[in-house]
Structures are given as C-alpha cells and as structure tokens.
C-alpha cells in the first residue's frame, strides 16, 4: 500500500486508515491524564453527588467525557490536510523554471523568484516554494518540520493531540479544547462541592482528605489546568470568529502595518459566517492516496524522486 512508502514522517495504523505524527508520547499522556482524572471522578465523587444532589451529574459528566475523547481521537488520527509532494516530472519542470543556468550565473543576472503571486479577493498573496515537497505552496499552507509535510491551512503542530492541526481537522481540534474546558470546569465544580459538603460534616480538612483523597487530587489537577485550557479555547474562538490561523496570528499577517489596518482576504465578512465556514462547512477530501496499491511504475517514480532530491 502507498502508506508504507509515504514520504513524510507520519505513522500509519489500521492499514492506512489512521495516521498520527511521528512522536506521539505527549498525545498518550493527554489521553491517560483525561481518562484517569475522569475515572477517579466517576468512581469516588459521582456516587456521593448523585445521591446528595442529582443523578444527572454522572450523566452530564459522561457525555462531556465521551465527546471530549471523540474530538481528541478524530483530531489525532485524521489527515490534517497534507499536500502531496510533486512527482518526479512535476518537480523537474518547476526546478527548471527557477534554477540559474550556468551561462547566466553572473553578478548582473537576476534568477527567477522562488515565489509566485496570486490574487485573493483583490489582495496580492505570495506563494512560497517548498524545497522539500518541490511545490509552490497554496495560500495559508506551510511545511511542518516535525511531520515533514506541507499542510493546507496550517494552524500549528500540536504535540498534545499528536498531529498537525490544519484544514481538515481544525474543527475537531476546536471542539476538543472547548469541550475539555467545559469538562474541566464541570469536574472542578463537582469535586469542590463534594469537598465543601464533607467539610460541613467533619469540620476538619484533614478528615476530608482522609475520607476522599481522590477528590482533592482531582480538584488540584483541574485547578492547575483549567486556566490554560480556557485561555486556549478563548484564543481559538477569536481565531475562528476572525478566520485566522495560529500561524498567521503569530506572524502578524493581518495586523496593522504603517498605520493601516490589513484586511484578511479569507474572512467571510462577519463572525457568524466565519464560524459556519470553519466549523460547519464541508470537509475537503484527503489529497493523499494512503490505501492505494503501489504499482511498479509508482515505486520507481517515488524512488527516483527520493534519490534525486534527498
């Protein structure tokens, strides 16, 4: 299968159906931390709260937990929008256009630029040439050095989800961090309520700690993590409503320059349309043929391209 000779550094599972970044250790830590925290909550806090307050607490917690993990796995194991590398013939054609001929290699000769310019809603956008993939990257695309791929609408590489975040999985990443924020706030509120109710009975915190040490541990974990999660969710809400990426925000692509406010040509015009476009629009098909059968011609072409450009 073609995934077995894929040029990038990604790892593939289930015969190419699933893919992740090459280093997934932090991702597994994320899964274990969420699962262990929620597991302790369901075992030690939910029975008490369901009996004393309402049986809806474990139901709400279960729904948030399942939704959070589902969004995490969908983000981690999907194609973020990888752009295929140029074939041998395509790469040779592009290289021929931008290379400097020996006969013209003089101080006065100006070689062809390694960028192209296109117009997006009347604004000039530069397409940069990728020396690894041998292509002119589309607007908003960028090359991830960790996965060694060009990704369409590249947002960032997130070790916590073990994958790049791009055009095809950004909505699932956004759903993950927002649902994780709600889950952290919910569990922290419930465990704090449990501790306060026990304090009214025992009057001493040390006695409460002996009765339910897990509640204190969960409360500390949620308290330490909830602020960063809420901040991250808020930041990506801002990016979603303005139709920007983390990469563009860091570079200041649409920030004010020279006293003039730069216009984002990718914005749909208002907050609602931007959110609908990013979170509810159709998901583009994957451009990489992961499960295709490798023919002798394809294998020869890939091997020749690798030998020539690597």
Description:
GO terms for molecular function: protein-cysteine S-palmitoyltransferase activity. It is an enzyme of class 2 (transferase). The chain crosses the membrane at residues 26-44, 56-77, 172-196, 216-235. This is Palmitoyltransferase. This protein has one domain (2-82, 157-309). Helix 1 (25-52) crosses helix 6. Helices cover 52% and strands 12% of the residues. The two termini are 22 Å apart. The protein has 310 residues and is mainly alpha-helical. It has a 3-stranded antiparallel β-sheet with strand order 3-8-7, with no helix packed on it. It is elongated. The longest helix is centred in the middle third of the chain and has 33 residues, at 170-202. It has helices at 25-52, 56-76, 88-98, 170-202, 205-211, 213-242, 246-251, 271-280, 296-309; strands at 11-13, 18-20, 82-83, 115-120, 123-130, 135-136, 142-144, 149-151, 156-158, 163-165. The mean pLDDT is 87.
Provide the domain count: 1
Overall radius of gyration: 25 Å
* N- and C-termini, Cα separation: 22 Å
Helix content: 40-55%
Beta-strand content: 5-15%
Q: Mind describing the biggest β-sheet?
A: 3 strands, antiparallel
Keywords: Acyltransferase, Lipoprotein, Membrane, Palmitate, Transferase, Transmembrane, Transmembrane helix
Main location: membrane
Membrane topology: Multi-pass membrane protein
EC number: 2.3.1.225
């Amino acid at each position: 299968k073609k995934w077995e000779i894929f040029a990038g550094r990604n790892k593939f599972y289930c015969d190419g159906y699933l893919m992740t970044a090459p280093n997934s250790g932090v991702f597994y830590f994320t899964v274990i931390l969420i699962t262990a925290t929620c597991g302790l909550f369901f075992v030690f806090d939910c029975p008490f709260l369901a009996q004393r307050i309402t049986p809806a607490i474990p139901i709400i917690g279960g729904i948030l937990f399942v939704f959070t993990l589902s969004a995490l796995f969908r983000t981690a194991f999907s194609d973020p929008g990888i752009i295929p590398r140029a074939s041998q013939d395509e790469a040779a054609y592009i290289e021929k256009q931008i290379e400097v001929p020996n006969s013209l290699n003089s101080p006065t000769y100006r070689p062809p630029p390694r960028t192209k310019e296109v117009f997006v809603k009347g604004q000039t956008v530069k397409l940069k040439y990728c020396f690894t993939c041998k292509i002119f990257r589309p607007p908003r695309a960028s090359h991830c050095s960790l996965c060694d791929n060009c990704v369409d609408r590249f947002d960032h590489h997130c070790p916590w989800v073990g994958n790049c975040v791009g055009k095809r999985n950004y909505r699932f990443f956004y759903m993950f961090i927002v649902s994780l924020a709600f889950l952290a706030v919910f569990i922290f509120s419930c465990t704090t309520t449990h501790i306060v109710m026990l304090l009214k009975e025992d009057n001493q915190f040390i006695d409460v700690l002996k009765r339910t040490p897990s509640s204190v541990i969960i409360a500390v974990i949620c308290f330490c993590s909830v602020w960063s999660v809420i901040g991250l969710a808020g930041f990506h809400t801002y990016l979603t409503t303005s139709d920007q990426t983390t990469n563009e925000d860091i570079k200041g692509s649409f920030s004010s320059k020279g006293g003039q406010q730069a216009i984002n040509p990718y914005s749909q015009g208002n907050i609602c349309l931007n959110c609908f476009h990013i979170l509810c629009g159709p998901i583009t098909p994957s451009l990489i043929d992961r499960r295709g059968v490798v023919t002798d011609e394809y294998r020869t072409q890939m091997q020749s391209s690798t030998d020539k450009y690597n």
